[in-house]
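DATA SHEET
Item: assembly model
Revision: 1
Owner: S.N.
Input lines:
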Amino acid sequence: MTNAVDVRGVSKAFNRGRPDEVRALVDVDLAIEPGEFVSMIGPSGCGKSTALRLMANLLEPTSGDVHVNGKPARKARLDQDYGMAFQQAGLFDWRNVTKNVELPLELKGWDRSRRRERALEMLHLVKLDEFAEHMPWQLSGGMQQRVAIARALAAHPPLLLMDEPFGALDEMTREHMQAELLRICGETSTTVVFVTHSIPEAVYLSTRVVVMSPRPGRITDVIDVDLGPRRDVDTREDPAFFKKITEVREALRGMERASSSEAAGPPQPAGMEDR
Amino acid sequence: MNRSPRALAAMVVAPVAFGIAFVALWEAAVKVLDLQPYFLPPPSAIWREFQANAALIWEATKVSGSNALVGLVIGTVLGVALAFVLSRFRVLNELVTPLAVALNAVPIFVLVALFNNMFSVTSEVPRRLMVTLVVNFIVLVNVAKGLTQVDRTHVELMRSYAASEVAVLRKVRVPNAVPYLFIALKIAAPAAVITAFVSEYFGGSQNGLGSRIVGNIAISKNATAWGYVLGACLLGLAFYLAAVLAERAATPGRPQSAE
Amino acid sequence: MSEAAAVRPARSDSAPRARDGYLHRLRAVWMFALALLLVAVLWELYKVVGPQDGGTVFGWKILPRANDQAMPHVWQMLARFGEPERAGFPGTILTTILSGAWFTFRLSFAGFVIGAAVGLGLAVLMARFRVVERGLLPYLVVSQTVPLIALAPLVVSWGGKLHLGAFEWPRWLSAAVLGAFLAFFPVAVGTLKGLTSAPPTAVELMDSYAASWRQTLFKLRFPAAVPYMVPAFRLAATASVVGVVVAELSTGLAGGIGRLIIEYAREATADPAKVYTAVFGAAALGLFMAGIVGVADVVLMRNRPREALE
């Protein structure tokens, strides 16, 4: 079976050859199988967003290969083999909710009735049927983010790339959205790569958590999370859940110890991670 | 903003290249298409006329320039003073703001025609008054904005210190308004020159740049008129640069306001 | 709106802002009428207390003459609209003013359209090719600091003389070109700013869809630019009127409102109220142009969040 994502020996440097060169990623290897939910976690500047953007082919690696769906990342982007969601919902103010979900289909040249049908189907999936004709700014942050997910999945891509999509939401909305995301991905059997700052979020959502460290950005640990496919409110109170959280936290702290024993490097240039 | 020497060079090279290309193209177009001087004299001819009439152009520049300068200074002082008054009294602000907005949409300089009758056509007062008025509104609107559109958190912080209104004005509103004043000045300085200039089209003494341009065209000396245009451009540029330098001098270390 | 909020932070909360928008505008209209009335009152007041032949302050002759020749009564100005342009002429001066304003409006509108088209084209070019932006933008900025209006008499002097093949350059076109000349800059700069204002994530989103530059331009950049373009067009509308009026003034292009102002100003000693009718006409013209853009604004922004209306 071809991997959903294949990252082999990838390095990425910004401002190469200049005094302010940043080694955002060094020698990253990561294979993700179809159906997996993989979270990438680490402190600012560890290159997790960069890694995601390499998979999306929004950036080109300095060296190494990125394959998505068995194709080079560029081909996968042109073929629309993935959908993407960002921390900001990034809905277009001038389009209503349905039109926002239709955007990727419009760009693929679908005809009007077909893309409307699909958009309504997606809005049903994210439980926003009643808001189809609303303007984005009339919705709450959580609802906007659900529209963004509907948009990302509109073309039924096998892979979903998410960059801290719930980072701007309050804790309650956030937990609700996490449960919704698991349900939606279960229903559509979508593979997910998910960048986050939150340890419980990573553990709750993922089948695997990739722990990364900065300066230079690299993978330091990969932790399997076997909490079973059905995760609900009870999962969050399960001792096994807490055990995994501790494990991820330890992995992050171990890395901290390792890096604080080195001479503290210069602070990461702002905006590298959260572009 | 990373300004390596190479990036800086790129920033300079492109405009200079465009400029040279433009002048060269102009010169070539005039030669190749054999354009008549009344249509478009070549840059070289304009430069010759500019040099030949330098003394006269300088005299005319002094007249237009001093009108612009007097109006700019008085208008700025008046505008700042009014902005303080308006920001203090809400009703006045509500009265003046729509008026300022409306005046903005109107070719206000035609008022010179009225001023010429109210004063004397031969005096420079109507022109200076016109410049004052134009500058006043630009400064007034911007400074009032700076005094009122302050960060709410800052005001709340000052309130939490039980600071007086005067203290809020001095510590929060005035510092906030300073960049706005310079934005206004960078708009007002060239606008003062332009207004001084246009005011001359309404008759009166034939001593400024505007009158001279019209006068030279009337006797078909178009290249000479272009020479005066060049003088006018330099005057406008000088005023603008003065405003930019004033901003640099008054707010060292602050990010400069964008255009 | 936010000004009021900033002045009285203690009292303001954001909820009533949207609802207040309409009332706020209505109040602004009333305040405007009141302000005009106040100006008229101040005018008449000065006529009562001011020196008849002007006055000096600290040796400067800066007090205007308060006599009826220099400063006619407000009611005289208004009444003048109902009288004929010249004794014995049929029709009122209002008709003359309106037809003059209409003439100038047509030229201004032509200038506005030409200027907006050029400005939009330049903005797209600059947004597409960085080298064009780098090379051109400084000149565009500088061009605003120099009195390009000085070119007015030169451009108008082409009228009737210049022949491009069979095409004889008409004088009115010069005036429209000047209007365009002043109008294109705000459009170019405002649109460029708008086109580059699309948030980086939105651009990444379009990239992730493998959208072409054209698709990104029309689906993302232009819609995102609208809030920047509206004020730019408003400036351009005024600028085109200014350009045309200056062209009329500086060269004696007949038929428009600018020319009427000059003519009537010369008759001020005999008929002081006359020039005011023309000045009011010019003001009305400017407001009319701004009104057209205002209507476009309301139509284009009707579905946008309120904040963008600032």
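QC remark: Residues 1-81+158-275 of chain A form a domain with the Rossmann fold fold (CATH 3.40.50.300).
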